[in-house]
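Weekly structure sync, notes
Attendees: PL (lead), two postdocs, one rotation student
Agenda item 3: pending single-chain targets
PL asked that the sequence for the first pending target be pasted directly into the notes so everyone works from the same version. It is reproduced below exactly as submitted, 509 residues in total.
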Amino acid sequence: MVVMMITIFSLILIAFSYRMICSVKGYNKLQEEINHFNSIRAHTCSENVLYILLPCHKEQSIVEETLSYFWDLVKNESNVVLIAITGEAETIDKRANIDRIHALIDNWWAKFNQELFYQTNNGVFPLSYYNNIELIRLKSLSFSDFKNKIVDLYQGIPSTNQLIQQWQGEHVEDRVILLHDCNPHSNKSSKINYALHFLLERHDVNSSINLGTTYLAVYDFDSRPHEATFKWFNWKVNQLNLNDEALPAVFQQIPHQLGSQIQQISKNSLSFSTAIWHLERTLGIEAYLLYSNIWKSKFIRGCMGAGIFINMQQLKEMHGVPEHNDDISFGYRLDVIGKSRCSIPFPNYSQPTPSTFNKVRQYKRIYSAVFSAGLELEWSKKFFPKYVEKNGRMRIISTYINDNFHVFRFISFLLLIILTLCSKFYFLGAMLISVSFLSYWLTYKSYLNFANRLLSLGNYPPLRPSIFARLVSVFSYDVFKVIILTHFLCSMYIKKDTITTISIDKTDR
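Predicted structure, written out during the meeting:
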């Protein structure tokens, strides 16, 4: 029993130490690149073409803010074009939501506050409409009056497409393009592929554009990339071209989920906790491994969906991004067929999900992508058989283990507690549990420190969670991952859902 307790304890410490060492190295690599770029005051004029893709779904509340933010960043970069892509799914959802409106009205008439609005709305109204609804409720003379006014308010909500057209009318720019994906089941992946096909057709007309030096930068609509992002990208591409070095298939930006200070900032503690712990992955895997090949044969890596710059020629050859997932599954394909990547050192700030309900939906989709590694291996064997390594199956198994790192870590901690309670070695067990908890606490503090350093790069104020919030956050992410993995496996094997049906779900703002 003692040997088992010490073994589990050792595994917990190794897990914490291993990820922390990789995270420190990853962060240091990013900082070195930033310092180098700042020290040379690089000239960023570039002959390559960069298209920034902004797929959007029900983004009415931040259309003006998002488009203005991106335009301010790139208006002086003559090689950059903004492309917003809306979808027919938003129109279909609006018609389908009429029935949901009546249920919401019943709840909101009895009681209404911001927390209840976040919990029950689930994408029906833009979150910026809270004040409108509160004012209508206060001024309504009866339930019937309230009901009619809310229905009228909903019917009058302009679509994202209409608001983008309005913004275009106020900012007459030929470097801002609006596309509309007419696919009734349009999602982020289909919008990216729709934009790719549009640009390829455009290229057929104007063949002077070199696809090999053209990139598509994909961002979420709540993304706020660091102001130096596109200057660094243009400089880096120029440097690689001047040195006759091959351009990578992908430039990957490191996400920071608590930096996008847009109109709605989530006060949800789970979103806050997952955003902090998410840095354990982005710094310890994405940032570090993009500068290192030590794990090249061990497992395959996903991509981050926001802040990914994809070489257009490479994307054309890969037939676009997977329809079921635009980031993790796409990253798996890249690794399986040996495509190169490079890290963008400046962070991409984004907004955490506004509610626990949406956080659950988001992580279910993430797990559907994580467990698509086998599908991507089969896809790669079909389209790129000569590039697929023989040890692909072992890399997939390693990938599953690595991507469920938090689950194994927390289960090990629970086993240590159970073994302590079932043994006579209470003092030893208490010591091991205390040190394990301290490891959790110190690791959380370290990533909170990383988060604040990255925020300072974008001149955002530091995060100062309360002691209670910190104590909750220490374990909440690992516990959440265990629950979501269980939920996902039940959906797959009991409800008989598929990776495709889970992945097409959307997280509304």
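Discussion points:
- The longest helix spans residues 2-40.
- The beta strands are 49-55, 80-87, 176-181, 214-218, 224-225, 250-256, 308-311, 341-349.
Action: rotation student to compare against the earlier draft before next sync.
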